[in-house]
Amino acid sequence: MFSSLHRFGGLLALGLLVAAGARAQAPVRSEIVPAAPSDEQSYSKEVVYGINFNTQGGLLGGASVRSSRVLDDRLLRFWSIEGVMLKDKAKELTVNTIVGGSYVDRKTNYAFVLRPSIGMQRILFRKAADAGVQVNGLLSVGPSIGLLMPYYISYDYTAARTQVINIQTDDIRNEQYDPLKHVDPNVILDHGPLFSGIGETKVVPGFHARGGLSFEYGRYRDAVTGVEVGVLVEGFTKRMVILSPSNLAETDRLNRQFFPSVYLTLYFGHRS
Q1: pLDDT at 4
Q2: 130 CB-side CA count, 13 A
C-alpha cells in the first residue's frame, strides 16, 4: 500500500514539474495600453476675431483681430489690431428737433481709434484636450491712432432769419456742428449722414497699454471661443475734441486727453 502511495506521489510531482516547464516556455502575450491624450500644444498658430465692449464707447465698442504664434507649451506671442469709437456718454445729450430729427448737443467730431499692438499671452490654467476652461494672461502695448471726423448737422439758414421752417424752399446746409456758429437750436433739423465729413478727418497720435485675462472654452482643439476682460490705459498727444466748447476753459472740462477704461471682448477663431 505504501509503495502504491509512494508511486502515486512521484507521478503527481513529475506531472506538476512538466506543467510548470510548459507554462514557462509558452510565449507571453503583451497587452497594448492606449496612450493617454496629451494636453500639450498641438498647434503653432491661432487667429481670433472679437467684438469689444468698453466703458469709453457706446453700446458696441468696436471690433478686433489677433494673430498668435506659439513659442512653447505655455507662451504665445501675438499682434493685434482693434478699432473702437470713443464717446462721452455722461456729457453727450441727444436732442429731438421740431421736425422729427435728432442731433447730439455740442458734438463737433466723431472720435475713432485704431490700436495696432504687440504682446504676449501666457497660459495660466490649461483646459483638457477637448473640453473645459482655459485661463490665459495677456499683456500688450502699441500706438493709438486717433481719428476725429466732423459731426454734421442740417441747419436751416432761412428759418434762422424768418423763424418759419419750409423744408421745400429753405436754404438748408449740412455743416460741421459749431454751437458758436449755429446759435439757434430751433432750426437744427437733423444730424447729417455719418460719413459726411470723412474727407476732413484729423489724425491725433497716441499710445496705449493693456492687461487682461481670457477665459477660453470649447470642445475642439482647432476651434477657439471665449471672453477676455481687462483694463486699458490710453493717452493722446492732445485732447480729443468731441464736444465743441464755448470758451477755452470749457475745452478742458468737456474733452479729455487720457482714456482709461475697462473692457470685455467676446472672441472666436481657429488654430492651425
Answers
A1: 44
A2: 2
User: In the prediction, which pLDDT does 130 show?
Assistant: 63
- pLDDT above 90 covers a percentage of the chain that reads 58
HSE-up (13 A, CA, CB side) for residue 139: 3
Strands of the 188-191 sheet, one edge to the other: 172-176, 152-156, 188-191
Q: Which residues on adjacent β-strands are paired with residue 13?
A: none
Specify the pLDDT at position 39: 45
Per-residue cell: 221: 482643439
- Cβ pair 70, 48 in contact under 8 A: no
Give the closest residue to 225 by CA, choosing from 272, 270, 268.
268
Q: Which three cell numbers stand for residue 129?
A: 484636450
Report yes or no on whether pTM surpasses 0.85: no
pLDDT at 179 over 90: no
DSSP 100-125: S-EEETTB-EEEEEEEEEEEEEEEEE
**Is the CB of residue 84 less than 8 Å from the CB of residue 144?**
no
